[in-house]
Amino acid sequence: MEFSRRHFLGAGSALAAAGLMSAAGQASAQTAKVPAKWDETVDFLIVGTGFAGLAAALEAHQIGIKNVLVIDKMPTPGGNSIINGGAVAAAGTDMQKKAGISDNPDLLYSDILRAGGGLAHPELARHIADESVENFYWLRDKIGVQFEAVTYHGGHSVKRSHSVTAHMGSGFINPMLAKCKEYNIPIQLRTYLEDIIEDDKGVVLGAKVRTGYRFPRANSGKVKYIRARNGVLLAAGGFAQNVTMRMSHDPRLTAAFGSTNQPGATGEALQDAQFLGANTVHMDWIQLGPWTSPDEQGFGKTPLLTEPLVGYGPMVDPANAKRFVQETGNRKVRADAIVAIGHPVVMYACAKNVFGQAVGKNMSKEMFDSLLKSGVVHEFKTLKDLAAFYKIPYDALVAENDKFNGYMKAMNDPQFHTKFFKDGVPNTEANGPFYAWRLWPRVHHCMGGLEINNKAQVLDARHNVIPGLFAAGEVTGGVHGMVRLGTVAVADCMIFGRTAARSAKAYKQPM
Amino acid sequence: MEFSRRHFLGAGSALAAAGLMSAAGQASAQTAKVPAKWDETVDFLIVGTGFAGLAAALEAHQIGIKNVLVIDKMPTPGGNSIINGGAVAAAGTDMQKKAGISDNPDLLYSDILRAGGGLAHPELARHIADESVENFYWLRDKIGVQFEAVTYHGGHSVKRSHSVTAHMGSGFINPMLAKCKEYNIPIQLRTYLEDIIEDDKGVVLGAKVRTGYRFPRANSGKVKYIRARNGVLLAAGGFAQNVTMRMSHDPRLTAAFGSTNQPGATGEALQDAQFLGANTVHMDWIQLGPWTSPDEQGFGKTPLLTEPLVGYGPMVDPANAKRFVQETGNRKVRADAIVAIGHPVVMYACAKNVFGQAVGKNMSKEMFDSLLKSGVVHEFKTLKDLAAFYKIPYDALVAENDKFNGYMKAMNDPQFHTKFFKDGVPNTEANGPFYAWRLWPRVHHCMGGLEINNKAQVLDARHNVIPGLFAAGEVTGGVHGMVRLGTVAVADCMIFGRTAARSAKAYKQPM
């Protein structure tokens, strides 16, 4: 198959990250020194404006921390959280009860541990499980988040993902931002954390930042030293967009892979903490989404088409027309299989399946038309046209298509054990036309990060607490282990963000 | 099953490590400051006397580094290396050719990458593959290591493990120590690296050590500052014996698990480097050996009995008499299954299998008798006696034993897909007596560690080289990825140790 690099380079964000890294490469290998004079003094400095950072800021205000400052290097607030799916896990709420769902913290705890494959830190998972209900009520009753329904996500024992009416993360972030405004909590954008500053005993005093920072230009903006009397919270997210950093931990994740994340997910705050001796855990558990198209950017719309059609249409390697994986396998199984092939694969289904399962169901006709118009999805009258377009060997494709249809009919796939459904129809010209699209995984979530305890305090390599340093959300590791359950990360961010605020309140910096 | 903690506590080394950690927990969270006066100045300071440290010392001498000092915290030299299996991988030697084995560096490279599951750093694997033959000749022709045969280890494409006549790591270590003596390279034992010292630009200047150190007593011995003009090499091994540290990365590996390692494998040098901002990779890939007995210490002799008998006798959970895993599965599959059960399991086989496959083959009759005498292996005339001794439900065991024998006869195990062999006989009283022993995994090898480049320079969290800091061997990560191939770690230690010496020679410390 002729494969153009255009689609990789077109991603943009990966390149930006690569550019950023070479700039950061020139930075000092050391942390910044304590300044002769601080430009500003606050009580609690929060780095990041996603779920974790904003939850921490609001909690801090509510428990009486006076001078809270929230900074973010990007020009807009919300980080990855604002483009999140828009649901939070909670186990045992009144909303579940009303829907007839019986749930409790122990059940959530055991679900997290099971998904984590033995690597989740039990005391962190326990903390989330124990706080999830209170956190849900806090969001609804004290912050004003509007919830719509309790939904199901894979791996959970019961429906416990509380979705917001906005159907995306902005349904949390916007009310949280409004509350920050009401509380007069300053949110300073384009402000980059360049270094965390500690004294000669290893106590975190504050930070060196750059105001008026233009991402991703290293050394842009003006240096400012901020003293933080109750400590610094890192709530700066993951490193999915930092190619060099993710390749240290998983060399497969070259610039050939884009990310579903916002471009600022580049992990510098995590690196800054490492220079204080902070320990990192599970950094090599980097989750890829197998459902994205190389022909659109970010998360895109293709996942909404791909997911309802697994088990209805085949995925093939265009180089040889062969299927290569259980189409209904989990994210990791599918992503690893495509990565091993090394180039985008093709998925297709006939119109009867596409319109029976996806379009008009979880995807509107308008959205589907826009995918056709932008050339992400293509329509073909015949399998011959489809094969010609993607340069797939035609005879081999016919044979593979017949085989897939036969497996579907028998409801049994002896080759890859793909699961079929009763309402699937054979992918034939009679049931056509065919719709086809390419798939190439994107880096989606960093399971690993800074090691913390259940007070959101950052631990160093010798397992001591780093005084005055807190972390919450995707910048931390150990909460989920190998695999995270959908919507638990949202609870994780908020619960540990709020916990960090309480720990900061209790923290007395040695003078 | 009644399960006594005695066997866990009896391991001793885990406890020692735990004790050490609480002591280390009192240490400063910061690295030591540059002293007003150095007590001693050398050219190259090497921490560790295993394969990596000694290879580095010898190479350093041979290329003309004058003042080399090797230190080790333990009272005897050789680290884990001296108790290693005693073979080194090399791809394309005259010894292979003589044995009719065709091999080359590309084949070794691809074997390492395949075993690494995508996580091995290609440039590190390449370096080992490219240097393995020269390293073998160096060992044989310049150091005087005596080789016996080219043997096979699982996962390699061909026989390429060059075994020494001594049949264990001392076959390398002893000639290396003799050569150090000949070269007048001082090896200072009971000397503990307490901290690596860098200047305010992040350049490594030397180390703070404790001489006359009594492992594992923190703060024992006398503080001494050693300046190292050409840098410091960390060749201090892994952290399999450090319970707190390994639980950060894999919470399952509690003190309930012993280790096959020498007690000094506690990882402090790795932690010291983290305080300079050194990056760590793959720390959660900690390999367990599934073949050890809780009734003897360390690696022990049980693995030599267990391995030839997989596929001949069943492994059962004593709580319910059920088999639980493919007995012929790989190390990870078996260890994970036993860990999930949470208590030791029982393996047994009838005398005809035991004497047909193990005793008198890879294990002498004397060794087997010593296992019987020490109560590691027990002899039972009947299955009833066996069940009574291990408190296994008898009727269930009879049923399971019959089932296993049936699978064996049919050469097909529909339950766990265990592989059987033609010379296996049914485990019956007629083929008895039965021999039985318990299995409980031990922590065996830390795949992860400090990130290095192919010059053995340590990289920091921002992917810059830490000037003057080198690392080689098990203290590093990234070389092997998820799984290491047998005897490649030995080549890894020696090749990167020697590479570090060459890098130190080329290194000019900024004055």
TrEMBL record, chains A, B:
The signal peptide annotation in the UniProt record is: 1-29
Q: Which SUPFAM superfamilies match?
A: FAD/NAD(P)-binding domain, Succinate dehydrogenase/fumarate reductase flavoprotein, catalytic domain
Name the species this protein comes from: Mesosutterella multiformis
Query: Is the keyword S-adenosyl-L-methionine in the record?
Result: no
UniProt keywords (A-Z) are: FAD, Flavoprotein, Oxidoreductase, Signal
Name of the molecule in the record? Flavocytochrome c
Looking at the record, the residues that make up the FAD-dependent oxidoreductase 2 FAD-binding domain are 43-488
One Pfam family of this protein, by short name?
FAD_binding_2
Please provide, alphabetically and separated by semicolons, the GO molecular function terms listed in this UniProt record. Answer: FMN binding; oxidoreductase activity
PROSITE patterns recorded: TAT
Cofactor(s) the protein needs: FAD
User: Which family does this protein fall into?
Assistant: Belongs to the FAD-dependent oxidoreductase 2 family. FRD/SDH subfamily.
Task: Name the InterPro entries on file.
Answer: FAD-dep_OxRdtase_2_FAD-bd, FAD-oxidoreductase_2, FAD/NAD-bd_sf, Flavocytochrome_c, Succ_DH/fumarate_Rdtase_cat_sf, TAT_signal
Q: Does the keyword Coiled coil apply?
A: no
